Amino acid sequence: MIALAVLAILMMIAAPSFEMVRNSSRLAAQANELVSAIQLARSEAVRRGQRVVMCRSENGNACAGAGGNWAGWLVFADANGNGSVDAGEELLRVGDVRAPVTVAATDGSIVFRPDGFAREGNLLAAATIAVCVATTRPADNRRLVTIRSGSRVAVQTGNGNGACPAP
User: What is one GO biological process annotated to this record (predicted)?
Assistant: First the structure.
């Protein structure tokens, strides 16, 4: 009986810590998947000598357009340069977002050119993709995957105060 009481007390102490570790792992895994997809897009653009696009996707088959919450993403070789997955264009990777994690961005796609840089017109692109779990465990419930100077990818930790605000 005493052993059961001690076990119950230990479980009450351990459960919040376990939840925090689990949510931290989910955030790290999703952010790492995004970083890997971005790096794949960049390296494939250089290797193939053509544009490679990473875009937001709702169905795993086509790009979904402008930013917002992502259900998933695609990385594809954009042979005709129109920013859409067309017949004959190779899908290089399909990713998905697993609940309770949310992924959001203001842009719907990142386009890497054959020189390895993401560009918008003649300017180097910058983008932020927010990975979040709406919880206070851990307090740092956001990961911001950023692209700066056209190709530098970094992950920053942030505190959303239990919410998942837009990036």
Answer: protein secretion by the type II secretion system
Instruction: Compute the half-sphere exposure of residue 34: CA atoms within 13 Å on the CB side of its CA.
Output: 34
What whole-number distance in Å separates Cα of residue 27 and Cα of residue 132?
7
73 or 124: which leads in pLDDT: 73
Determine, yes or no, domain membership for 121: yes
pLDDT bucket at 11, cuts 50 / 70 / 90: low
| pTM for this prediction | 0.88
Tally of domains in the chain: 1
Q: Print the SS3 string covering 148-164.
A: ECCCEEEEEEECCCCCC
Q: Is residue 147 part of a domain?
A: yes
> Is-contact 140 161, C-beta < 8 A?
no
Q: What is the pLDDT of residues 23-34, one digit of tens each?
A: 899 999 999 999
Backbone φ and ψ for 132, nearest 5 degrees, come out as -150, 150
Q: Is residue 145 part of a domain?
A: yes
pLDDT tens-place string over residues 20-62:
888 899 999 999 999 999 999 999 999 999 999 999 999 999 9
Domain of 6? Answer: 2-48+98-158
Report in angstroms the alpha-carbon separations of 100 from 63, 71, 120, 135. Answer: 22, 12, 32, 10
